[in-house]
Each structure stands twice: as C-alpha cells, then as structure tokens.
Amino acid sequence: MILVTVLIVLPWGAALWLSAQKQSGQYFAMSIALVELLLALIQRFAPGASGTLGHALHIPYLGSLWTLHAGPLGSTLALLCALLIPVSLAFAWRLPEFRVLASAVLVMSGALFGIFFAQNVLMFYIFYEILALAGAFLILRSGHKSRAAALQFLLYTFVGSLLFLVALVVVYVLHGQQTGIYNFSILQLADTRITGGLGIWLFLGMVAGLAVKMPLFPLHSWAGTGYGNAAPAGSVFLSGAAVTAGAYGLIHFAIPMLPQAALEFAPVGIILGAIGTLYGAFLALNAANLRLFAAWASVSHMNLVALGLFALQTQAIHGSVFLLIAHGVVSAGLFGVVSIMESRGLTGEWSGLGGLFRRAPRLGAWMLFFFLAGMGLPGLANFPGEFLSLAGAFRVLPWAAGLATLGILAGVVYFLRAYERIMLGPLNGTLPDNLVDLQQSEWLLFWVLGLLTLWLGLDPQIILAHLGTLLSMHSGDVIAGGGHGL
Amino acid sequence: MAYSPTLLPLLIVAAAALIAFLADALRLGRLMPWLGGISSIAAAASIFVEHMALGADLYWDLSATLLGVYLSLAMAAGLFFITFHPLSRKMTGSLVGLLLTMLAGSLILVSAQNLLLMFVGLELQVLPFFALLAWPGSGRAAVESAFKYAVLAGLASAQFAIGIALIYLGDGSLAVIPPMGDMTSNVFGLMGVLALLAALSFEIAAAPFHAWVADIYQGAPAPFLIFLGGVAKVAIMGALITLAAATPKLEIPIAVIAATSIVVGNVLAYRAGHLRRMLGYSAIAHAGYFLAALAVGPLGIIAGAIYALVYGLMNMGTFMGLSALPENSIAIPWAALRERQPVLAGLLGLTLLSLAGMPPSIGFFAKLLVIIADVHDQVYWLAILIALGSAFSFAYYLSTLWKPSVLSNPDRLLHRRSWETFAALGILILLFGWLLAPLGMG
C-alpha cells in the first residue's frame, strides 16, 4: 500500500517542485525517475506484493477511492512505464524545454501508476483524465509547441473519456438498483446484470473513452499531429507508456464490466483493428517526414494490439499484451533515433536526408536494429506478440486477421523504404559537414533498449509465463460460452 | 409576522446592515467589513442551529441550510477579501451595508416558502447591485453594465410579479406548496409558474434569457462579481430548487432550458475570445448543468443544491483571482501574476480547471453527481449532453490557461500579501473539498 502510494505520489510532488524551480533540474528529475524504476521493480518482484493492498478515502456511495490492487498485468505495465521515464528524460537531456517536459512526463507517470493499481473505477477515471491533461501539456510545451495539436489531443481524449464516464455511471446506477450497493469498485460493478441492447451502447461508450488512447482506428488521427508535434523525447513516453492505459482499461475494467457486450462487439473490434493496422501502414508509407513516419508506425502496431484484445481469445490476448510491452520498448527506440537526429539539427524531412550512414554509422546501425524490430523480425521483441495475436485472431475471424497480416507485410515495405531514404543512397548535399555520430551516453542508452528488445524477442516467456489469467473469472466464463476458446 | 426562531439569521444580518449604513456618518467605515464578516459568520452559525426548523413562511430544509450556511460564509470571506481592494476605500460603510442587504435577500430567497416573501428576497438582492456595479472609482464600463443590469433585472422582477399574480389568480394562495395540490393545478397556475421559471432563469442567465451576462461580466468590477457570481446567483439557484421541488410538472421545461443553455453557453464561450466574456458565457453553460440536475426527481434536488454550492465556490475563486488584475485585461498575464502572487495564480488556474470539470477538483464531483442524478432517472440524453458540453469546455478554459499574454506594466497588478492566505484556503477547498462529503452524508 505505502510502496504503491509513494510510487504514485512521488512523481507528482517532484513535478510540482520542478515547476517551481528556475534551473532545469536534470539530475533531480533523473534521480526521481531512477527511484521510481527501483520501486516498480520491487513492486513487481517482491513476494506477497499482489492482491488488494489496502483501502483509504472512503466516500459514501462512491466506495473507497484509494483502493490499490496489484495484479500481474498492472505491475508489468507499471514496470514498462517506470523504465520509459528515465529513457525519455535521457533523450530530452539537452533540450531547452527539459524542465517542462520532465514535469509533464512525471505527472503522466504518476497517473499511469495510479491507473495500473486502481481498483475503484472512478479513481481509474480520475487518473486517466490527469494523464490526458498532462499529455496535452507535453504536446503544447515541447517540440513545435503547437496549440492546435494539443487541443486536438485534448478534445479527442476528453470527449471519449467523458462518454466512458457516462457509460460507467449507467453501470453504477444499474448495479445500485439491482443490489442496493452504490459503489464504484470494479469488484462490485463486475457482477451487474445488463440486459439486451443497452449493454452494447455502454460498451461503445467505454470503447470510445479507452480506445481513443490506444489509438484504435477511426479514433487515431490525433496521434499523427500529437506525436508529430511533441518533442520526440516526449513522444517516447506518449507512444510507449501512455497508450498502455487504454489497453489496460479495456482488459481490466471494460470487458469485466460488460462481458456479454464485449462478446457482441468483438467482430467489430477485430475488423477495426485490422483496418487500422493496414491503414496505419499506408499512412506510414506516405508519411511526409520522419516524425510522422514513426507516429503512424506506432499507430499501426497499436491497432494490432487492439485486434488481439478484441479477439477475446487466450492466445491473442496474451500476444497483444506482449506486443503492447514490446511496442513500448521498440517505439522508444524509434522515437529515440528521431530525437538524436533532431538534436543534430536534422529536421526529419525526407528531402534533407539520404546517405546518412556514411556520416553516422553507429546511428545507422541502431536505426536498422529498431527498424528490423518494428518489422517484426523473429528474434526481436515485436515478433512473438504479432505472431500470437494474429494466430489467435485467425481462429475467430480469419479474413480480418488476414487483412491485418497484409498490414504487417506493408510494415516491411515502409520500414525498408524509410531506411533507404534516410541512410542509403548518395550523400545528401544539404547535410551538415560536421555531423556527430552517437556519443558515449546515447550509445549506452541504445544498448539498454537494444538488449531489452533482444531479450524480449528471444525469451518471450519472461513476460508470457507470468501474465496468468488476464480476464476475471466471471467475464472469462461468459466469453468462453461465446465460443472464443478462452 | 410574529417573531419566530427561523428569522434569527435574517435579523442578525439586517441589524448589521443598518449599523453599517450609519457607520459612514460616524467615520467608523473602516471597521465595517469586519463587523459585516463577523455578523455573517454569526448568521451562518444560527442557520446551522435552526437547521430544519419550520417557521412562518421560512423553512430551513436541507438544501436551504446548506446554501444558507454557504452564502453567509461566502459573504464573510468576500467582505474580508475586498477590505484589501482599493475600491472599498470610498464609503466603506455603505458598501458593506449594501452587501449585507444583498445577503439578507439571498437568505430569504433560499429559505422562503411563500411567493411574496421570495419576491421581497429577490428585490433585496437585486437592488443593491444597481449601486454596487457602478461603485465610485470603477470606470465608465461599469456604469454601462450597471445600467444594463438595472433595466434587464427590472424586467425580470416584473415578470416574477406577474407570475405571482397569475398563481394567486389560480388558487388564491401564495404558498410555494399550496394546501391543495401544487401550484400548477390549473392553467393560470401553470402560466404563473412558467413566468417564475423564466424570471429566475433570467437571473442565473440560462439560455434563452442570457443576453445580458457577457456585458455585465465584462464591464463590472471584479471584486463585486465575487458577490454576483458567488452569492447572488447561488441564492437564485436556491429559489429555483424550492420551486422545482414543489412542482414536479416543471421538469420538462427545465430540461429544455438546461439543454439550450449547455449548447448555447458552450458555443458562445468558445467564440468569445475575451477572458471576462468567456466567463460570462460559460456561466450560461453552468446554469445549464445546474438546471439539468433539477430536471429530474428528488436526487436531482440534492445534486442541484450541491452543484449550486460548488459553482458558487468556483466563482468566488475565479473572481478573487481576477481582482488582482487590471479591470480591462482580456487575458491573464500568467508570468507577471506568478511572480507577484504565486498562490493566487495557482488558485486562478485551479478554478479554471475546476470550472471545466477536471478531476479531482470539486467541480468534477459536482458534475458527476448531476450525471448520476440524470442517469438514475434515465434521462440519458441530458447526461450525454453534460458530458459533451464539459469535454468541449476544456477547449476554452484551457486556452485561457495557455494563451501567452504580457502585461505592459506589471505594476498595474494589485499586490496584496494577505490575499495569498485566501488563495491557499481556496486551493485547499477546491482540491480537497470533496473529502468533507462523508461528514454531510453522515
């Protein structure tokens, strides 16, 4: 209880302190990030640190708001999030807006830890809103400082999450009317009887709130402007860690609350995920610059995650959770490469690139490594996740899974084409003469991410074996009755 | 009317108002804000003691007690606050007297169970504003806004009077809950109640009766908007609660006004482009959220009372923050404000977020309660409209937060060390006020 509370509150306090400072405070932020990583590691691997951890802040009719619960999925995703804080801060190290970026990232990470350990759905919602606000702040104050992009991100996520809130309140009121217990705890809400057509509307509302964060097609268009306008170091965290909140919300809250509706929605979800995978791939193929390229590649992968989730089938869900984690690491690598290039004064427009490998071979090698991982090369992180989600989805809706496979194939094309445009070919005349290759510290950072990618790819059991049963017993029964092989 | 214990808070406030009016002649004006504040606190205490007492035509029921205590305490806080503002230097005694008269009217409004008494309360709280909005030293725009307010509020009062007349014509009773049936039992009564609803909607600026609000918010001096938004409007909301609780047939017209207000308010506020006008237009949307609570049964009445209280608190915070800025500023110069008065800047930012409904501020919990009330009575469309409206409102509230604005001369900011204490208290209330909820619910 205390450990997780510290995990949630410490980054907020640090962000508050940081925003009151005049100097940029790199070392302070980094030490907080490392402390968080340590705490998350302890939380994940210490014995006896799972199950319900404690209750506090009891409000009549709303339940105990500060109820913390540690499950294997939440703790693992928290570890990913804790890992990406120092990575993102390290990539931002020399940026002039480091202080703003660090405080936004710290606020977001606190909110994410809250999301991963909350048992009360209202509290989950509160953390989710804080996450969205801090994300908008990050887009607003870093990189291109685009107000329009921040506003678009904010409107997409807030409209979605308020629809989630209305759907949640309907479930809450129905549960209260059926049992007389008015409480927002997921343990209570998960056994609400919801009949007929109402359920599917409620599930649509919840999907609107949660899938917009992933982002599922057709709610994805904020991702291009958002990731494209924030500083790439911020996008490392936005695309790697913040998106996991939506997927976690679906697995841990939306599907257990409305299992029957989830079953009915499943084909639609699979088809949307498949379309999104393919569409994201095409957008990446035609991206105008490197930032947008990385953004759409991330969207394409996240839609594959959604496809696996909505397949509601053991293999596919495990695969998609694995892909979620792998995507976090690989996407950090991709945006990290973009960040390094921008720190060298390269804009990322295709016309200003070409033949870079001759100037910066080490950067080129690492870029190739992460591009290969993004393509889903066997032995690297993405492959087991992609394979399992597709294999699971093939059993449920073969043609849609086939469509998504085309998206993966397109992935090979767009990654290789982008690599050719950036690194190969004749040396672009506009490149500066004194381009610096990777320095010692950057090199080290890539080694960390690279080894992690390799490790996840070679030994996927390290994650998969410890996920356990992801869906609650009740929803598992309902879904198994629908023939999804859970 | 014979003396009854329910009158005690009114007597305290009215006596203090009389003393304050006399004080200017005796050159004791400087002391009057403190006297007014203490007597307001005493009134709050006596309301709390009289809790649930049923007197002649005044009834301190649950929502009336809640709002009555809030109104008195808000008045006390406001009085202590404006002591440090230059506008209160001239004729301090009269100023305090007018404000206390307004408080007396507000207390009558929230607790009255008699239409005529309600009318007296309405007049008592509207008339002082004619003078307050154009207080000496506040510029030409303020005179203009006071004049507009006078004309339009006079119109609303007239409408209220016609409504009372029609209801009396209908069933020969002036009680809000007449002995037989309710006020709408015949066609005159129905017309009368609709006229009352229109008049009160006008006072809280619900669409389509909203035309005045932006001009007033733009022109009036910020310290008095603390009282207009944080006290007067809340009292009108209290009267609406009494009315809606007594006449269930009003639910449909209230729902229609609520929906129009949410849509109109949000669209106008988005297009305003001026800080004060944006706040004025967004007040329309907030009137809509409040009425959306009243549009559904008994749970809605509770939700409405809590929304009114929270709305009042948020308004107090906003205009306390704006009191430090020059009157004609169209955006908030954050950098200068943060340097001079960091806590006050924090309060202002927090109230803007709270108005938008950002959790975990009390603004969010108030909206959540309204949504729960609507969903509970299966008025789903209104709940969805509230959700969409409040999602949309983030666009304009946040753009005031992040719009860069530079003040040409930072010395025009009022700098008061003591306001920081108010701001710190305000931040605590806005962020953690919902923790007090278990006390109220037992």
Written account of the structure:
- The complex is a heterodimer of chains A (486) and B (442).
- Chain A has helices spanning 2-19, 26-45, 72-91, 98-117, 121-141, 147-179, 186-189, 197-211, 221-229, 232-242, 244-257, 259-285, 290-310, 314-343, 356-359, 361-375, 382-396, 398-423, 440-458, 461-464, 473-481; strands spanning 51-54, 58-59, 63-64, 68-70.
- Chain A is mainly alpha-helical and 486 residues long.
- Chain A has a domain at 267-486.
- Chain B is mainly α and 442 residues long.
- Chain B has helices spanning 8-23, 32-50, 62-82, 92-111, 115-133, 140-171, 187-203, 213-219, 222-246, 251-272, 275-294, 298-322, 334-340, 342-356, 362-376, 380-402, 419-432, 437-441.
- In chain B, helix 2 (32-50) runs antiparallel to helix 3 (62-82), helix 3 (62-82) packs parallel to helix 12 (298-322) and helix 7 (187-203) packs antiparallel against helix 9.
- Chain B is globular.
- At the A-B interface, strand 2, helix 5 and helix 6 of A face helix 15, helix 16 and helix 18 of B.
Structural class of chain B: mainly alpha
Give the low-pLDDT segments of chain A: none
Q: How many separate domains make up the residues of chain B?
A: 2
Q: Quick one: overall form of chain B?
A: globular
The rounded distance between the terminal residues' Cα atoms of chain A is 32 Å
Mean pLDDT of chain A: 85
Number of helices of chain B: 18
SSE order of chain A: HHEEEEHHHHHHHHHHHHHHHHHHH
Q: Provide the helix percentage of chain B.
A: over 70%
